[in-house]
Amino acid sequence: MPSNVTETAPRKPRRTAKAAKEESRTALVRRARRINRELGEIYPGAHCELDYGDAFQLLVAVVLSAQTTDRRVNTVTPALFARYPDAAAMVAAQPAELESIIQPTGFFRAKTRSVVGLSQALLERFDGEVPGKLADLVTLPGVGRKTANVVLGEVFDVPGITVDTHFGRLARRFGWTTDEDPIKVEKDVAALFPRKDWTVLSHRVIFHGRRVCHSRKPACGACPIAPLCPAYGEGETDPVKAKALLKYEMAGQPGQRLKPPALPVLAVAKDTTKGPTRNAAKDVPSDPGASNNEEDAG
What we know:
By secondary structure, this protein is mostly helical. The protein has 13 helices and no strands.
């Protein structure tokens, strides 16, 4: 451990599921916003982990990311966009050629239909350009609120909450919602945070879900926000065993992107194997590769 880091004793998580049920609205808002602040310290460079060059490429990449990892999509899109860089080129493509490129992402026939369909709709209704309004985006084939919010937040700087499988899972574990329906989850979570925070909140929560708070085996004992989580104990609580469950790295370099954006210099942090401490996750990767688990895809 570096000499400039002070080792602290593990903090026992103070919350339980029963306590969360008795939590007042004010306390819930305060705890939710504290979780967001602490996730910001843990993941100072949290970002969309899909590689893209413009709004059209991001839109297509998000559609392709369904039921697979962003890393896998990132291995496919360079060749895809080199041959079909815009909506016009995508519409003119032979379906069989598109399918052969998209195939590694899974469900390639359905995804090909969606990509061609949304490209055709862009040409017919939006002059080939990606619209910057939610109401317009969700009319495109294969595009729902999740995809639309990713594009709006990344490209148009319009705040939005991206409820993917990771975000929904963590929102329920954090006690921010009890719903399974993504639209209801989005509404419940939006009510807890200022609108300006929605996009970065989404990135931070998804980062945490991919790296620490997994679906089947959450690494509770290595989680730096365990003291704030009513679901602590659902996963492995032994710090050493929990650390072995961590995926990628803690702060997002390189993560799933093949061409990651420039990120801030990361501070030295405390050792996560010592138990759940407040700032214990600005650490190095235990496994820099992408998850192959279906429940942790994307």
